[in-house]
Design a protein that fits this description.
Strand order of the largest sheet: 1-5-18-7-16-19-20-22-21
Radius of gyration: 19 Å
Strand content: 35-45%
CATH architecture: Sandwich
Helix content: under 10%
Structural class: mainly beta
Number of domains: 1
CATH superfamily: Acetamidase/Formamidase-like domains
Order of helices and strands: EEEEEEEEEEEEEEEEEEEEHHEE
CATH topology: Jelly Rolls
Shape: globular
């Protein structure tokens, strides 16, 4: 699959804005090669580079924005991640004041990881399979300016490792063109991202963009070969809009989104949807590095398996 458009990591944003102008406009179906920074924008090169020494205004850039012709409010912008190729080295951290073990880990700590083919090496003893994905993927929000640290109905920092190779992310369009931006690549990230970082890394990806006209969820929906995943968020939306984090709120939004999908798209009654989700679906947490010294928020997801009554693709 050969890209017809290439965008370097130098073209990036630090927030999703309702009035954003696109860097490039493409037709539906376009294949794009994007390059992204690691979330620290190249500031971390050794274990001496701990979080307190960083310029935090240069964290979590996202490559874009990309407008898609014909995208209008009420549509879904569908982004398929065909290939994600991390660079050779990445990093992960202990950030003082962040995560459920912060009291036991008060000292800032950085570890450098090597990526060799399909394996990641943390040190001479610890190696594990790579699972490349993007933490940040989103479009312009309905209103205001939301930093790339944060997540919401527009997407943003969903930090869901299901947003990896082969996945299609259906994003609700709020403004003409959509204004898609992607960043915060991880060579691997566990559910919860409990220390505040995955294996933060730069690299390149091959994506394609398409449209589903007249059909959009309230929050992003990720589609994989065997399931759909709805999302819900709770917490900060911007530095001027602090909110208490509630995992219960995030889960409620993800569950309500899944129920609506089952009812509206596949004809379940609400009672059957409720029972089906209880017996065959899975609710989980993608982001829960609370407390957070940077940006407290949580993200939950609900997995709906693809069965005969829940067929692909996602459309009316």
């Amino acid at each position: 699959m050969e890209p017809t458009v290439k965008i370097s990591r130098d073209q990036h944003i630090w927030s999703f804005n309702a009035n954003q102008e696109p860097f490039v406009t493409v037709d539906p179906g376009t294949v794009i090669e994007i390059e992204t920074w690691d979330c620290f924008t190249g500031q971390v090169t050794s274990e001496a580079d701990t979080f307190g020494a960083l310029d935090v205004t240069r964290v979590n850039s996202a490559t874009g924005p990309i407008a898609v012709r014909g995208a209008e409010p009420g549509d879904s912008l569908s982004v398929t991640l065909h290939a994600i190729t991390p660079n050779a080295t990445g990093s992960a951290m202990v950030i003082p004041g962040t995560g459920p073990l912060h009291a036991q880990c008060p000292n800032p700590t950085t570890r450098i990881f090597r990526v060799e083919g399909d394996m990641i090496h943390m040190n001479d003893r610890v190696s594990f399979p790579a699972r490349p994905m993007f933490g940040v993927i989103g479009v312009s929000p309905a209103s205001g300016d939301i930093g790339t640290y944060f997540a919401g109905p527009h997407g943003g920092n969903l930090d869901d490792h299901k947003n990896g190779i082969g996945a299609t992310i259906h994003l609700p369009v709020n403004h003409s063109g959509g204004q898609l931006s992607i960043g915060d690549m991880h060579a691997s990230m566990g559910d919860g991202e409990i220390s505040g970082t995955g294996v933060e890394i730069g690299g390149k990806a091959i994506i394609s963009v398409d449209l589903i006209k007249g059909h959009a969820g309230a929050y992003p929906i990720t589609e994989t070969a065997d399931a759909f995943y709805t999302h819900g968020t709770s917490g900060y939306r911007s530095v001027d809009d602090p909110r208490d984090c509630s995992i219960d709120e995030a889960m409620q939004i993800a569950i309500e989104g899944a129920a609506k999908l089952l009812v509206d798209q596949w004809g379940f009654t609400i009672e059957d949807a409720f029972i089906f989700m209880s017996v065959a679906c899975d609710v989980g947490v993608t982001q829960n590095c609370v407390p957070s010294a940077v940006a407290p928020f949580v993200v939950a997801r609900m997995r709906i398996p693809k069965i005969g009554a829940v067929p692909a693709p996602f459309r009316r």
